[in-house]
Amino acid sequence: MDSLAAVDWTAYEQEALKAIEGALSESELDDARVKYLGRKSELAQALRAVRDRESGMLLNGIRARLEAAVLAREHDLLRVAYEAAADSGVDVTIPGHPVRRGRLHLLTQIRREIEDIFLGMGYEVWDGAEVATTWENFDALTSDPGHPSRSQFDTFYLDDDTVLRTHTSPDQIRAMQQRTPPVYLVSPGRCYRRDTPDATHSPIFLQVECLAVDRGITLADLQGTVLQFFRALFGQEREVRMRTSFFPFTEPSVEFDVTCFICGGRGCGTCKHSGWIEMGGAGWVDPDVFRNVDLDPAEWQGFAFGFGIERIAMLRHGLPDLRAFWENDLRVLGQF
Ligand code: DAH
Q: pTM of the prediction?
């Protein structure tokens, strides 16, 4: 039994138990554990030197009892800490507050989706300004000087010559002034009109403008691009149709319909039983608009469209009232 030489193991165990049971904090307990059970402790060294069964049983017995004592003291210290916290009025057993994860607003999701579709077709995403001159917002787009949409009752004026843009179409003007054609861009953003809020109107709303300027652009290019766009947005089975319309800055002007993506064209409440859903205005850029930005309409042609982003979101998700987008009720927005 020479591996046991020189140590009084009964005294060792008692001294160790006293240190463990008397530890008043986790760090005191850890010190005691290192001292009496750690790799460099007398016990560990003696265990490594053990050659006979009897010594092994003795030393392993001490180790097992000391380890159990450490564990028990650990629980004691924890319980004391819990009780102290409870006494101070904190109930440490109450589950914590769940951490809410934020998400993108539905309109932001759709705007980004639209940007991705057009980036995929080689378009530039244009970041237009929400403040426009009356020239950019109306005159350069050849809108009639006496048109009621210019009045103070329809448009937010910042001063006589400056407005909050009433549509994204002034971005066409700025883009053609700043870029040399060919130009292929989409410009999504906020627009402002003095409308009273209701289920389908809001004084602040989002549009996405598209402008393509190149040589030899035809209405067929417009139709193909819009078809691609709607198929990416609403599914590959969609068809589009153009109806004639009027806008001052396009000639000819059209409005686009897409086959209803709820009923597939058979007729339902969303498409008012027509099988078609109206998506918005478009057309072939009027030569006068080119002249207003010093482009020669004999050389350059183009198409443009402007669609409402809220309308796209409402149709796609069957939402009846666009005020839901602005009320910021997380029970609604959290569903998308
Ligand atoms: N700016 C028009 C509006 O707000 C929509 C529009 C119509 C945009 C025809 C266009 C277009 O680019 O070509 O009602």
A: 0.71
